[in-house]
Amino acid sequence: MLLFVFTFTYLSQEVQAQNNEHTFLLSFEDIQTANLQNLEEAMAIIPFFNRYTEQGNTIITYGTIGIQTIAIYKDGFPVALDQNINYNLKTIPLWDIERIEVRLTPMNTSSKNSSITIHMFSHKIPKKPIWSNVNVTNTSLNDLHSSVSVGLSNVKHSGQIGLSRSFTRELYDQTGLRSTVIGAFERYDINLKYTYKILPGITLHVQSDHSSMKTQNKGDIILGTSRVSDSHQDFKKNNLWGYLQLKASKNHTIQLDGMIHRFNNDVKDIDKDLHTGQQTTSENFDRIPSIGYDQGLIKLSISSQSKPLQYTFGIELSHTRDNKYPFINAVSTSYNDYDAFGLISYQYKKTVLLSGGINLWHNNLSGSYLLPKFQIKIAPKKVLELNFTSHSSVSYAPFTQLFYPSFLNNGSNNNILLKPIKKQVNHAHISFHQGNIWVNSGMLLINQNNIPQVGNNKTLISKGKTSNFTTYATMQFSLNNITIRPSAMMHAVNHLRDSGNLTFFYPELNLNAFIKIPHTKMAFGITSKFLGKMTKSFIVDNEIYLSEQKRIRYVSLRLQRSFMDNKFNISLGLNNVFQSSFLSNDIFQLNDIDKTRIGNQNIICGYPKSFTIKLSYSSF
Q1: What is the rounded CA–CA span in Å between residue 43 and residue 38?
Q2: 90-107: burial string, b at 16+ Cβ within 10 Å, e else
Q3: Which of 79, 88, 276, 611 sits at 20 to 30 Å (Cα–Cα) from 60?
Q4: How confident is the model at residue 475 (pLDDT cuts 50, 70, 90)?
């Protein structure tokens, strides 16, 4: 099985310098063309991933790997520390993001969720004494998004503040009645960024993101009455992070990182009488319960960039605590992590680069783990480079499965002794880089163990095994004002490696382009993604079932016109050109010789086709 992929991309000098780090890229032009307002929307477009909504829950996966076990970073810091807390990705805005990178088996110092990582990078603070940026977007679906940023900068200080308001309308079910399958939501954001160069070798950097989002899901009118039951969610988050960096010498750096994160998502059912206007409030545990968490992180590291030997050593302490249910059955719903790490690289002339690392990771619930990683590059940073990486990492089981009782845990009994999900990753690829052309082709294998499954007496146990195998290739190319980036890959997934051991294949194609039309100050953009039919196997009461999800197609187009020396831009867009909102998902029961179709359900893969107009102004 070998599939070749071609990706053509215009690369800024900054992005070209990072080609060895990322495998897939979603550029600023791609984000604008697809009219992506939050990270949940972006996950439908980012290569490797599949996003859909089923029975009111948004599901994001790469094959057998859920988003809960994939680390997400913004400017180098985790957005939620651990992804096992059912974090709402709609609350992560993209109005201040310049690009999103997907990195496969990165050689970093993290021990958790590091087989695949997603990195968001915000726009750098312009080196201007004072500047401002304003954006307004409106769609034919009556969505409205706006943001404004202002900043100041001098030799020692630079800072900015950004404000945003985003409203996305609801999506009604296919019956055309009152009930919604995706509720309308409104989000307000305040983002701050500040850098202080205390001395030539000492830098303090602080960032904070604050968001508030309200969501309303409408229910059907109860038959024979004038009553309805609506679900309201009120999400609030406050995230503060930063670092103090000391350049101890020309090649040595000491850095202290810290993060404080708190969020709450309150869920209430509003029972209304449409005739009298009376309403009552209750909490329905049959739906997503109210949640809230406090998280903290502190990390101290020392690194050396001298040649031929480079290294990074340090320690990291983190803490997660449930602030909604701090004690359940007299058990404290919290855990602590302690991580000592080391990463060493040695380059022999310009021929071979060897990298090795180890994490001694300890969790107060599950004990200690030794997690090694290794990488070899042949002819590093040359025209042709060979690369092989192998490493181990861990991911937490969902927080609810560790602590919450059955009525808060989909009917399953929790198990505080669940083991962390263990990942063993092997990644081999070859890259070619010359001028503005960069080609990368490889294979990725990820095996997972200790996945929670429902055992006897409805109690969760660490038993499941899965595997993912992907063959991919990418190429990035730039030519004058033309930017084209197609990509493709073939995925092989096995959700039941421990029992059914069934492997299913599905292809993926992506095409992104941005073309500047000469002498017109106009530009054209396209983003698209095509996923083939995906089959998933799962077990219920010792019976194996299959779900077959039909193919998905995302296509968005954009036409942009610049004015005032490119300071003012008007964009017209067309989003979700071919994709319908609802997608068929067939359910089969597997027997000894065949499969029997037992049902069908519709899943939601996006909003209907819409037109977009965007106005943006930048003073720099």
Answers
A1: 9
A2: bbbbbbbbbbbbbbbbbb
A3: 611
A4: confident
* Helical (H) or strand (E) element with 353: strand 352-363
pLDDT at 411: 82
> Phi and psi for 535 in degrees, rounded to 5?
-115, 135
The candidate with the shortest Cα–Cα distance to 467, out of 537, 412, 398, is: 537
H or E stretch at 190: strand 184-199
Please name the residue that has the structure tokens 């604008």. 32
d(CA 326, CA 286): 21
Q: Is the pLDDT of residue 19 over 70?
A: no
Cα gap 419→431, rounded to integer Å = 37
Angle at 139 between CA 160 and CA 560, to 5 degrees: 70
- The tens digit of pLDDT for each residue in 330-346 reads 889 999 999 999 999 99
What is the model's pLDDT at position 138?
96
Q: What Å distances lie between residue 197 and 20, 154, 244, 302, 510, CA to CA?
A: 29, 10, 10, 19, 42
Q: What does the pLDDT look like over 485-543, one tens digit per residue?
A: 889 899 999 999 888 788 999 999 999 999 999 989 999 999 999 999 999 998 888 88
Q: Which two tokens stand for residue 3?
A: 């599939």
User: Could you give the CA distance from residue 229 to residue 81 in angstroms, rounded to a whole number?
Assistant: 34
- Please count the CA atoms within 13 angstroms of the CA of 271 that sit on its side-chain side: 7
Is it the case that residue 13 has pLDDT exceeding 50? Answer: no
Could you tell me the residue ranges of all domains in the chain? 17-618
Token duo for residue 62: 């790469």
CATH fourth-level superfamily of 17-618 = TonB-dependent receptor, beta-barrel domain (2.40.170.20)
Cα separation, 58 vs 49, in Å, equals 13
Longest Cα pair distance anywhere in the chain, in angstroms?
A: 81
Tokens coding 467: 């595997």
At residue 419, what are phi and psi to the nearest 5 degrees? -80, 155
- Give the pLDDT band of residue 610 (cuts 50, 70, 90): very high
- Using CA atoms, how far residue 43 sits from 24, 94, 214, 342, 491, in Å, is 13, 12, 21, 32, 17
Instruction: Give the separation between CA 362 and CA 452, rounded to whole angstroms.
Output: 20
Burial 221-230 (b: 16+ CB within 10 A, else e): beeeeebbbb
- How does pLDDT run across 558-567, given as a tens digit for each residue? 999 999 998 9
Q: How confident is the model at residue 288 (pLDDT cuts 50, 70, 90)?
A: low
Contact 357, 390 (CB under 8 A): no
Mean pLDDT, residues 357-368: 92
The owner of tokens 């990644």 is 427
Helices (H) and strands (E) in the chain, counts: 4, 39
State the distance between the two ends of the chain, measured CA to CA, in whole angstroms: 49
235 pLDDT exceeds 90? yes
In the block, residue with structure tokens 């609506």: 230
Q: In this structure, how many other beta carbons lie within 10 angstroms of the beta carbon of residue 261? A: 22
Pairing of strands 180-182, 171-172: antiparallel
- Quickly state the pLDDT bin for 383 (edges 50, 70, 90): confident
Angle, vertex CA 38, rays to CA 266 and CA 10, nearest 5: 165
Which residues pair with residue 236 across a beta bridge?
Answer: 212, 264
Residue 597, Cα to own-chain centre: how many angstroms? 33
Return the number of other C-beta atoms located less than 10 Å from residue 156's C-beta.
10
